[in-house]
Amino acid sequence: VMDYVKIIYLAFQSRTIGFHLTARGVYVYGPLMLLMVLLGKKVIFRKFAGSFDLEYTSRGWYYKYLVGAIFKYSNLVLLETQHLINFFEDEFSVSKIKLFSNHRDLTVGKVRESSQRSIRKYLYLGLVDEAKGLDIIIDLFSQEGVEGLPDIDIYGHGDKNIIDQISTIPKLNYAGVVSNDLVMDKLCEYDFIVFPTKHKGEGIPGVLIESMSCGLVPIASSWRSVPEIVKDTCGILFAPNSSRELMCALDEARELSNAEFNVLSYESIERSKMYSSEYWVSKYFNTVSYTHLTL
Which of 86, 152, 196, 235 is the residue whose CA sits 20 to 30 A from 142? Predict the structure, then answer.
């Protein structure tokens, strides 16, 4: 209640109001957004996370009605991925949706330790569970005839059964959990990040932004919005949920010459700059200023 009172108080002092909401926030603050419209305010709606389409399709009529009204009456809607923009433009036939991507502070400027390692190093870093594709890695490395594949160090917390299983498989090494303040340092020790996700709500993964900013080459599943950040010019994509496709991608990575790898690494760094906090915060304020002045 106090949040409502505070927002209404601030609204009378402002022409434009931005709401940055989670799924629960849409329920709580959606009606307040529509009240702001009735009061003649310009409203900007930003939805966190890359799973908004799934949230929308799986919920009841009230949530769908509320989201529809928000899209209709907001002056500007900001979504995390082009995948979401395409979905909701088709759903509501509106053109006022703009991209506001997930982003990371990349001002640290850390880069991989060496571009000429004789043996390239691979890691997975993230949640250790099936939704992130760890079962695909396990299935591949449990097969016969994988001696030529690279070792993969696996970092993260998650499913203890999967962690225990990893520990029994040659060429897979569960290396524990990396604290947030050491993630960039750890990433810089490697050359490739393996990211076989099939997570139903995958947006623009922060770990891909961070690893690419260090010059790692991503080996990633072409799942949902992942191809929006990983392109053929900076990484290797493979069909999701397939250990055979992952094996082909790892073989492709292994066969890269130093020159080919260095090109991908450089392009990976350049690509990550499009997902820096500096870029998106500046873009946000420019977009809001334009909305404030023109609508």
Answer: 235
210 and 103 Cβ atoms separated by less than 8 Å = no
pLDDT digits (tens, 9 = 90+) for 65-85: 999 999 999 999 999 999 999
Q: Is residue 292 exposed (0-12), middle (13-18) or buried (19+ Cβ within 10 Å)? A: middle
Q: Which amino acid is at 93?
A: S
pTM above 0.85, yes or no: yes
Tell me the residue type at 58: S
> What is residue 215's DSSP assignment?
T
- CA–CA separation, 55 and 58 (whole Å): 5
The pLDDT score that the predictor gives to residue 290 is 65
Paired with 20 in beta bridges are 46
CA distance 74 to 238: 38
Best CA proximity match to 205, nearest among 233, 179, 225: 225
3-class secondary structure, 114? coil
CA distances from 265 to 148, 153, 171 (A): 23, 19, 24
Give 237's strand partners: 220
